[in-house]
Amino acid sequence: MGTIAARDCIRILELTEQVAVAVLLAAVQGVELRGNSDVLSPALKATVQYVRDFSPFLNTDRALEQELRNCLVLIRNQDWPLYD
User: What is the per-residue DSSP string for 41-67?
Assistant: First the structure.
């Protein structure tokens, strides 16, 4: 039972990471669509720029799987400036 629960827990954590990545990309897109990024704090502006360094603005329909995977790797490697 313990090993099955551990596997289930790992799977839940992986799915949670994937949802967090999708929400991050959607939030950055939403901020840019609203057009009021000048009211963001410097930390949020840096986060938006950091996301845009590997995931350009979505102005046409395109596959996002690779961008989502890249962002997931960045989060798992704690590559974000907030980890400093």
Answer: -HHHHHHHHHHHTTS----S----HHH
Which of 69, 73, 84, 80 is closest to 46 using CA atoms? 80
Q: pTM score, two decimals?
A: 0.84
| Nearest C-alpha neighbor of 17 from the set 81, 59, 71, 82 | 71
b (16+ CB within 10 A) / e for 36-48: eeeeeeeeeeebb
> Over the stretch 37-73, which tens digit does the pLDDT of each residue have?
889 898 889 889 999 998 999 999 999 999 999 999 9
CA–CA separation, 76 and 11 (whole Å) = 14
Q: Any idea what DSSP says for residue 77?
A: T
